[in-house]
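Hi both,

Apologies for the delay on this - the queue was longer than expected. I finally got the flavin-adenine dinucleotide-bound model through. Below you'll find the protein sequence and the ligand SMILES exactly as submitted, and right after that the structure tokens for the full complex including the ligand.
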Amino acid sequence: MNFFNRDLLIKSLKETEEWDILIIGGGATGLGIAVDATVRGFKTLLVEQDDFAKATSGRSTKLVHGGVRYLAQGNISLVKEALKERGFLLKNAPHLAKNESFVIPCFSWAKGFFYAVGLKMYDWLAGNKSIGKSKLIFRKEVEKRLPTIKKASLKCGVLYHDGIFDDARLALNLAQTVVEKGAVVINYCRVISLLKNEGQKICGATIMDKETQEIVEVKSKVVVNATGVFADDILKMDQPESKPLIRPSQGIHLVLDGSFLQSGDSIMIPHTDDGRVLFAIPWHDKVLVGTTDTPLKIPSPEPRALESEVEFVLKTAASYLSEIPTRKNVLSVFAGLRPLAANGDETAKTKEISRSHKVIISESGLVSVIGGKWTTYRKMAEDAMNKIMNHQLLSAKSGSTENVKIHGYSMEANKPGSLSFYGSDKIEIEMLEEENEYFTQPLSKETHIKVAQVIWAVRNEMARTVEDVLARRIRVLFTDARLAILLAPKVADIMMKELNHNEIWKANQVETFTQLAKGYLPTL
Ligand SMILES: Cc1cc2nc3c(=O)[nH]c(=O)nc-3n(C[C@H](O)[C@H](O)[C@H](O)COP(=O)(O)OP(=O)(O)OC[C@H]3O[C@@H](n4cnc5c(N)ncnc54)[C@H](O)[C@@H]3O)c2cc1C
């Protein structure tokens, strides 16, 4: 029985008289809270206005990390907490999150010693959650591990360990985890207003199903605003005069062919010209390079990289790589918005704003959870639920998510190019392939992605649009935007048949997706 079925879940949404908790937002924050609330036995509903991880949670650097940069800033408690959480995520979602070796190339021995000492502290803070010891390595080993690194004036390097993961797939698997535990989680449902009782306390929300335009009023004891950079919009629904809580900060990534790295190790550049950290990470056979920190005034669901950001990342990468990447080599460029919690100091640089999270309860009882990072999503959820129960918005119930295995849990290694990121679902996709010869065929001669994966995404992963499939179920839009455009007509055709749509739907989908995907190609 497939519980992750949108029609069935919409039916439950309509038939339930009152929920214990309604969560607005299907990113890392909202989904984490849904897991925690469900494990404690609360009747839980989560609605997402687009697709799961459409916004920031699908556009991260894909690090499960304590944050070497936060250590340099002296934010020890944040680093310690995140390292502990890193341990839980690697343990509970081994099909998506894995231990990765990072090398810091150093051009003086003094720098090498400096970073080696810092990373020893990083190891020490991880305590029994350490995933490998850091060490100072000689130039020869740096060159062996990073064959494409610029060799001139390289002196030594520092090797350390952190985690990397697939963010959008984790979001999807979290949604599946909670639905399997009895919660209702639905994409393409937007909260358009909040409901208040006679005492002016929040008691639910009005939701629009964006597929049918149907409007439904939902009652809930607690409403949680987990909308990331859009949190101020929900706060305004509660209190039109409320002050902005969010300072969005944009970060971009460029995706290059794997030949630019030729290594299973990642490069970490600890100090760029603008004082940030830059990573080059092997990801789905390609190399992800980023990121930036650009303050923005107005958040958008489809942020675009600025020319100056693309220039900056290329220039920084060029000073470390022997083969210089140019715009022509960029397979995809994507931007994401950090939902930083405003600290009242408008002049503070975004890179200096703390990445800690905040749980704020308004006078009307609206709970807003903002800031934080993917790595700490579980702890953020735990803190939010504890605060909700301490404020008696819900009666106290115990339950821990530290050992909750995430949907797809499988110890099989995350091998690039194979189906192993599906974890335990891999075997079911292989069984689906056996049903029909056509399902085993690749979508085109340029890719190994099979028809079965699109069918699986529609039937079992709540994919509703071509973008859902090509951006988040299979990450082609992020790894190769041109290939994604090429595959769109075939994917639309398969989806049209699976979802009983017509040719007009198909043509619209191809056109909409193609326009969107063009925004992932840099201007030449
Ligand atoms: C460039 C960049 C790199 C990063 N790298 C890392 C990293 O390597 N490791 C790490 O741990 N963290 C990283 N982060 C941080 C991490 O990605 C974020 O902290 C996290 O994804 C935020 O999740 P969220 O759920 O709060 O927000 P979002 O993912 O934005 O989710 C909010 C959701 O709410 C929905 N929503 C909004 N309004 C409504 C409404 N009215 N009704 C219904 N739904 C609504 C939105 O559509 C959205 O999907 C990075 C962030 C950025 C920007």
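Main takeaway for now: The pocket of flavin-adenine dinucleotide is lined by residues 24-30, 47-50, 54-57, 59-63, 190-191, 226-230, 251, 291, 336-339, 372-375 (CB under 6 Å).

I'll put the files on the shared drive as well.

H.
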